[in-house]
Amino acid sequence: MPSTRQAERAARAARPARAEPAPLHSGVHAELSRRFITGQVTPGSSLSTRGLAEELGVSQTPVREALSRLAAEGAVQIRSKRKIIVPTMTPERFRELLRCRELLEPEAAMRALPYIDAPRLRRLKRVDDGIESAIRNGDLQGYMQGNFDFHFLIYDALPRGILNRLIEILWLQFGPYMRVVYGRVGTANLVDQHEVAISAIGAGDADGLARAILADIRDGMDLIGKSALCMLA
Amino acid sequence: MPSTRQAERAARAARPARAEPAPLHSGVHAELSRRFITGQVTPGSSLSTRGLAEELGVSQTPVREALSRLAAEGAVQIRSKRKIIVPTMTPERFRELLRCRELLEPEAAMRALPYIDAPRLRRLKRVDDGIESAIRNGDLQGYMQGNFDFHFLIYDALPRGILNRLIEILWLQFGPYMRVVYGRVGTANLVDQHEVAISAIGAGDADGLARAILADIRDGMDLIGKSALCMLA
DNA sequence: GCCCGATATCTGCCATCACAGATTCTTGAC
DNA sequence: GTCAAGAATCTGTGATGGCAGATATCGGGC
């Protein structure tokens, strides 16, 4: 089972096995977050502590803790009726999530711009190449992972981010639904809006970068609108 | 008799008190959140699962879960070195928190305005009276609780809030530090900026409400600046 | 054949215990 | 008196087991 291996790797990723083995719950949360952001969980489905525990090769306890964090981040709803479900999307929720992204992400990009050095810019370009490749190959999961990497490679340039945390929360809620949407329209309809952002970064143009990010967000919204906003899963 | 199911349903509906005992971890999180927002925890201090468990009369498990959520909300840092601490404030963190508040809260107030009905407005006025009273009496904790109630009585008018969640996260991080600041300058220097907001709500003036909220936030910032931003605890 | 009720299973929830690292306190040597 | 080594304590962490409620499955009655 590759997921267990990924979880183990994630658990040990923080420190190179010297003195600090990262806590299990941290690795579990990282793995689950990745699944949410890349859309590997479907809206409306339910998760179980025991199931995930067995799947990831740990006990219920760290799983429970990770799910607790995910609940705080809005990625899952823990209904008192003995069910943990990933929330379904509604038009209102979708619009509010999008509004929050519009508010926060351009600001985060602008503030992070001065901290983006040459190596990071190179990594951005590499990630963008991967995104285009994923679009060509119809690799939906690779596209979503790359898209996440791209945006947060920008935002995380600003150290000590609080904005980043808030934005990550939004993405955790977006992921499952976006996967459904992307799956419906296919990768052929995806356009890569990131080159404008890259050139703005290269030019040190903060306003241009903010505009590019905003355009990228709105572009995704238009995609949804064109597909089927009414068919919310 | 076809009424058995109806009877069951009626019985369930008739006694909602016994039907849903809220999970312990939820209550613990609520209590701890209240303490953070009203500044009953001091920055830099450390919490322990066992201590809180004994204090609240529950086991470690629900406390851990609540602390896990609080960590996700940035209210506590769970350092791997066997310590759970409430973060200290730094000028950068403070500015970023404030910037996030400026971005989110006016927007939240504007969007919530159409949902504020007469009863809620009356409750707002009552809370505002309590705030003034708390200021006069030097009741710092009452002031902070009232201030929180006032703002979220506005924001929470909008149902299913995602914005509200994000804002609450910011307040959870602000609370401990604000208590220190307020404690330093005393309640005498506090001014109640909420009346402008109340009248804007009464007039249905969204822009005016947004401006009032923004002014309220900036006013708090000025208070900090006037006291001692350099003496960050 | 259809529906209701009892049993079996599954679920989140919580308490308890054990473990290992970190911290604090004690103690003994110089 | 100083200070370091060891013991006692405190810490987060994780696994286990069991409880109660919810769901699913199956059996029996009409």
Distance between the termini of chain A: 29 Å
Query: Any idea what the shape of chain A is?
Result: globular
Residues in β-strands, percent of chain A:
under 5%
Query: Which pair has the most extensive contact?
Result: A-B, 33 and 33 residues
Oligomer: homodimer
The residue ranges of chain A in which pLDDT falls below 50 over 5 or more consecutive positions are 1-18
Q: Give the H and E element order of chain A.
A: HHEHHEEHHHHHH
What is the helix content of chain A?
Answer: 55-70%
Number of helices of chain A: 10
- Rg value of chain A: 18 Å
Main sheet record of chain A: 3 strands, antiparallel
* Strand order in space, largest sheet of chain A: 1-3-2
- Total DSSP E strands of chain A: 3
Which structural category do the helix and sheet elements of chain A fall into? mainly alpha
Kindly state the mean pLDDT of chain A as a whole number? Answer: 85
Question: Can you characterise this structure?
Answer:
The structure is a homodimer of 233-residue chains. With 233 residues, chain A is mainly α. Chain A contains 10 helices and 3 strands. The first copy, chain A, has a 3-stranded antiparallel sheet. In chain A, a hairpin with a 3-residue loop joins strand 2 (77-79) and strand 3 (83-85). The two termini of chain A are 29 Å apart. The A-B interface holds A 20, 22-23, 25, 64-65, 68-74, 80, 90, 92-93, 96-97, 99-100, 103-104, 107, 160-163, 165-166, 169-170, 173 and B 20, 22-23, 25, 64-65, 68-74, 80, 90, 92-93, 96-97, 99-100, 103-104, 107, 160-163, 165-166, 169-170, 173. Chain A binds a DNA duplex (30 and 30 nucleotides) through residues 19, 23-25, 48-50, 58-62, 64-65, 78, 80-84.
